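Supplementary Methods. Inverse-folding protocol.

Structures were first reduced to a discrete structure-token string of length 202. This string, shown here, constituted the complete conditioning input.
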């Protein structure tokens, strides 16, 4: 258990919440800042990018959040920060699958392979309805976070305001080859994401 988890559990208890909060994400969508704000005990653990809500079956007194966003920008954010190898391993934990290494792999090389090696769409599909959640779940679209932040904070019983910051990565400013590569791999997922409401409580 890391120091963030210990601190969050302690503060969550002080706040009087009758449940533990865990925020899971697709990655590259600003979930670290939001997770720490709502005292998510998933922060910097092997469950931070869990592939399915079924991973949490059997956990009592739990509230789950799943945060996702435009996969084009999410993937760019991961590569911009050099997190690609760490992220592919995080996305495959608890799956029984050993993913390929993305150490020193550039965004160009990743897109040339033409495969969603992170498993973003498979994770998204599970969380937004393919697999039933074992406890109350809130689905949070990054692009709708500013308009839905009040509902998110209410769900997690947090009163302190949260400032939604604009992202630093935008696929629209990328060269044509990058945009084509993103569309080829993540075009179908992006359509699903854009069709989702800003916030959905299940």
């Amino acid at each position: 258990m890391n120091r963030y988890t210990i601190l969050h559990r302690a503060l969550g208890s002080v706040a009087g919440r009758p449940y533990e909060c865990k925020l899971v994400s697709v990655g590259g969508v600003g979930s670290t800042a939001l997770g720490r704000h709502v005292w998510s005990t998933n922060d910097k653990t092997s469950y931070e990018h869990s592939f399915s809500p079924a991973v949490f079956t059997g956990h009592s007194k739990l509230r789950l959040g799943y945060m996702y966003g435009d996969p084009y920008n999410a993937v760019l954010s991961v590569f911009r920060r050099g997190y690609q190898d760490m992220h592919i391993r995080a996305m495959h934990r608890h799956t029984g699958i050993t993913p390929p290494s993305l150490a020193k792999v550039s965004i160009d090389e990743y897109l040339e392979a033409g495969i969603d090696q992170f498993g973003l769409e498979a994770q998204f599909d599970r969380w937004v309805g393919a697999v039933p959640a074992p406890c109350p779940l809130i689905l949070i679209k990054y692009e709708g976070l500013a308009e839905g932040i009040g509902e998110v904070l209410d769900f997690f019983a947090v009163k302190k305001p949260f400032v939604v910051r604009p992202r630093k990565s935008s696929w629209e400013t990328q060269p044509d080859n990058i945009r084509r590569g993103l569309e080829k791999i993540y075009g179908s997922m992006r359509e699903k994401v854009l069709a989702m409401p800003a916030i959905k409580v299940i």
